[in-house]
Amino acid sequence: MRRILALTTLLLPAHAFAAPMRSPAEIVAQAPDTAWRSVAPEHLLIMKLADGKRIVIELAPDFAPIHVANIIRLTRSNQWDGGAITRVQDNYVVQWRVHDEAAPLPEGFVAHPPAEYERPLDGLTYMRLPYPDPYAEQSGIASGWLVGREGARIWPTQCYGVVGVGRDMPPDTGDGRELYVVNGEAPRQLDRNLAVVGRVLAGMEYLGALPRGTGALGFYTDERQNVPIVSIKLAADLPSAQRPVMQVMRIESQSFRDYLAARAARQDPFFIKPAHGVALCNVPAPAREK
């Protein structure tokens, strides 16, 4: 059963961004252990590529529970093992698929999930950003995830490092057998149009450095160009010694408030003119491997 939290709204007025002299990187490095939460191993995917590179993904069951459950079922039935990255479109997305889309689906798999593109705010801790957002009436951070908001409805935003579900034309919503990660300027026009199922916490630099596809939409034109996926495993299914301990900064912590302030109005020595503003996708909750 999904844990329900009391709704908490953390208001952050513009004048609160009296930026400290420390840089965002210094604030993150100096944050105490109490400023971090550990990601549950049942919400962590470990992707291994053929060249040995490792990518760690945090799943988002609070936003797309049925799609996430499908992805976990595919993982536990080893359908990602031997899959491939088939598309790398510059400044847009990296996309991958299971090894055989014609293979029998695992028990409990939902072939036609609902459109899990937005949800009520109820049950999530929320911090509002005090800056205009061109894609939403309001934007902020809900339990560590970057979101747009309209009234009582919120949706996860398509920012760099966000993992979503590929789909065909609507009403198709995708079933989780093809996933993508945003690898460039945030394509926020995709907000509320595709299911967001997670975000990359470690290894995004490897995905971002892959050769670009030369076919339409960045697909590789020859299967020999595909980037092989050795495996995708759920951290909870690995021996404890092999599980990465990933942590995300708590948005209610003072360290996170300081981080936001520094991102909005840089006053560390390199900067001459503080911006006194920041776009939503430029303030993701910091992550670390402990």
How do the strands and helices of this protein lay out in sequence?
Elements: E1 8-10, H1 24-30, E2 36-38, E3 44-49, E4 54-59, H2 65-76, E5 84-88, E6 93-97, E7 119-120, E8 125-128, E9 138-142, E10 145-150, E11 153-156, E12 162-165, E13 178-182, E14 196-202, H3 204-208, E15 227-234, E16 246-249, H4 254-264, E17 287-289
Parallel strand pairs: 1-8
Antiparallel strand pairs: 2-16, 3-4, 3-15, 4-14, 5-6, 5-15, 6-13, 7-11, 8-9, 9-10, 10-11, 12-13, 12-14, 16-17
Helix pairs in contact: 1-4
Looking at the structure, the CATH topology is Cyclophilin
Summarize model confidence as the mean pLDDT: 93
Strand content: 25-35%
Annotation, overall tally of beta strands = 17
Q: What share of the residues lie within helices?
A: 10-25%
- Largest sheet composition: 8 strands, antiparallel, barrel
Give the neighbour order of strands across the main sheet.
3-4-14-12-13-6-5-15
Can you name the CATH architecture?
Answer: Beta Barrel
- Rg for CA atoms: 19 Å
Q: What is the number of helices?
A: 4
- What is the general shape? globular
- Distance between the first and last residues' Cα: 28 Å
Residue ranges: pLDDT <50 for 5 or more in a row? 1-8, 13-20
